Amino acid sequence: MSKDRLKILEPIRRASGTVALPGSKSISNRALLLAAQSRGTTTLRGLLDADDTRMMLGALRALGVHVEKKDDETTVHGSCGRFPNAEAKLFLGNAGTAMRPLAAALAFAGGTYELDGVARMRERPIGDLVDALNALGARVRYLGAAGFPPLAIDPAAPIGGDLVDINGDVSSQFVSALLMAAPLMAPTDGLRIRVPGALISQPYVTLTLRLMSRFGVEVVREGQVFRVSRGGYTSPGTFVVEGDASGASYFLALGVIAGGPVRVTGVGEKSVQGDIEFARVLEAAGGHVTWGDDWIEARGGESLHAFNVDCTNIPDAAMTGAIVACFASGRSVLRGIGSWRVKETDRIAAMATELRKLGAVVEEGSDFLAVEGPVAWRDAEIDTYDDHRIAMCFSLAAASGRRIGIRDPGCVAKTFPDYFDRLATLTS
Known about the structure:
By secondary structure, the chain is α/β, with parallel strands linked by helices. Helices cover 31% and strands 25% of the residues. Strand 18 and strand 19 (295-299) form a beta hairpin.
C-alpha cells in the first residue's frame, strides 16, 4: 500500500456486531522463538499473520529453523536450543518483539550474527539489554550509535557469575528477552536476574513467564529477582495463540463511543494478556462491559465522563483511551505512559499533535497525556508516523460525526492487516 495513500472514513453513526480477533503479536513472536529453541515439533494455531511475525519467521528460517505453514497451522521443528546456522544477518524491520528476544537468544548461541532494522528501529533503545548480556560474558557490539541497533554478535566467553542486573524502566521487553534466553545460557547452578528499579509493563513479563512454563521451564520470582534453572525448552505439542488484546481495545472502545454492543472473541476473563484491563478504563469512563471466558462485549452508557488512570501496565491499549477521552466530558488523564516515547514513534508527541487536529485540548508531559474533548469536532487528516496503533486509534474519531482521513493506512499491516475491513463490518 502506497505510503502517501489517504483512507477516508465517513462519519460513523452507530457501531455494533462481533469481531474475531487476529492472534496476539506478543504471544505469537514469543511462542515462535520458544518453539524454535525447543526439543520436538510444535504446531501453532491462530498465529498472527502480519509484518512483525513475518520478521520473526524470516529470522528463524535464516538461522536454519525449519518452519512449515498450512492454513491456520504453523509447524516449527525445534532446534534443541542450538540454531543450525552459526552465521546470519537478520533484518527485523521495526519489530521490537523480534529484535530484543533474538539479541538475547543469539548472544550465547556460539555464532556470528548481525541484527538490524528500519530507521526507526535504529532509534529504539536496546542498551540496557546489551549491558546485561555483556556483563555475563557476551560479545555484543554496536555497529552504529551506542545503545541502539544495529548489533553485531560474536561468540561469547564462558558465562560469568550467576547474578545479573537489568533495568526494566524503559522497556519490559529487555527483561522478557533475558528471561527467555536464560535457561539455555545459565551456569550449572542457574541464573538470577535482578531488576533493581521500576519494572514497567509488568503484565508482559508475566506473559513471558507463562509461555516459558508452557514450554517446560519454570521461573521462580522473589520480588525483583527471577531465578532461572539451567535447562532446555520442550515442545507442548500444540499451542493455540490467543486473540490480540491490544487490538481488542479499538473495537471495545467503538462499542462505547458509538452505541454498541460490540463483542470481540478470542480474549476474555481467562486471557493471559494484560491489555484486557483496558476494559476497566472503559468502565471508568461510564461504558458498560460484560465478560465471557473467551469474549468481551462493550456498549455505551448514558454519557461518558472524564477519567484519570495509571496506564503503566497497559501502554499499548492506553493509546485508545486518549481517543475515548475526546468523547468524555471534562479533562481525562493517562498516566504512566513514558514508554510511549521509545515505541514505533514518539507516541506522546504524535498523539498530542493529532488529537489537536480534531479540536481537542491536550497537555503532554514526560509520562502523561491530559485530554479534554473538542468543543467542536473538526474534519481531520491524521498523520500516522508509520505507527499502526495511531492509525487504528484515530479511525475511531469518525464516531464524532466528522470525516476522518488516515494517511498511510497500510501501516496497520504491522499487526492487523485487515483492520479497516473488520471495522467496516461493524459500522453504519
